[in-house]
Amino acid sequence: QSLPQQKLLTWLSVLECVEVFAEMGTARVWGEMGRWTIIVLIQLAKAILRLLLLLWYKAGIQTSPPIVPLNREQQQPLHPQDMEDNSSGKDQTYVGRRSSRVVRSLQNTPSLQSRHWGSPQQREELQSRRAEEMNQPPTPLGLQETIAESIYITRPLLHLLSLGVWGQRSWKPWLLSAVLDISSLSLLSDLKDLNRRERAELRRRTILLLYYLLRSPFYDRYSEGRILLLLRLLADYVPGVGFVTRPLMDYLPAWQKIYFYNWG
């Protein structure tokens, strides 16, 4: 990736990390008008950055989060003594004569901080395979797939525009958003030879369609009573589940009112 593309991904990741805090903080300081203003500005900035990545840098299907979180266990550097042993050519493993099992030799046991419990060969194979998957280029998108990804990127802006036109109690913004999400997934379903990250992103988007059960006005009119009844039954009749379901019942109404939690 080029340096400008990395900067765009970084800014996009920062926006996704602070959007909920920005919404809640602005609502506390400037009220409802300030809350919707910051929502529109953040969604507009995210759409511009994503469209630049899609149309200018040919980034393909964009994942969320844009930058994969660092796995510190995989990135654990070699212990200095391990590096000395590697440079000196010492054998790091021992193969059992009868079992043929490969184990680490006692002379090459790393420190507790950098120790792992698999064989060195397994760890090296796993790291090389994951590095290869992470370094795979994005799948080239044709015209149909580019339109589908553009629909997915611009869907939040169209939803906010429809909210401003028809209001929050209307079914039209909910239906418009659902149609755009389903259309985008349908157009992308014909794409073959996706890499691992892109397949995981499409699965994530498909699962997120369940959020429409928690989005107003469907939640207010149909889902709320049924979901709370189910959680109450689980808390009353399934031992141990109440520790999870009762706080969830208290948290769900507050979660549902925050835009970036259920619409972002």
TrEMBL record:
The record's annotation in InterPro entries points to: Pex16
Give the main localization category: membrane
Q: Name one GO biological process term.
A: peroxisome organization
- Keyword terms of this UniProt record: Peroxisome, Peroxisome biogenesis
Keyword Ligase listed? The answer is no
One Pfam family named in its UniProt record: Pex16
Q: What cellular-component terms does GO give this entry?
A: peroxisomal membrane
User: Origin, by domain of life?
Assistant: Eukaryota
Q: Name the residue ranges with Polar residues bias.
A: 106-121
Where is coiled-coil annotated? none
UniProt keyword Transferase, yes or no: no
The record's subcellular location field reads: Peroxisome membrane
Skewed-composition ranges (Basic and acidic residues): 122-133
Instruction: Name the family.
Output: Belongs to the peroxin-16 family.
**What name is this protein filed under?**
Peroxisomal membrane protein PEX16
Species: Phaetusa simplex
Q: Which gene encodes it?
A: Pex16
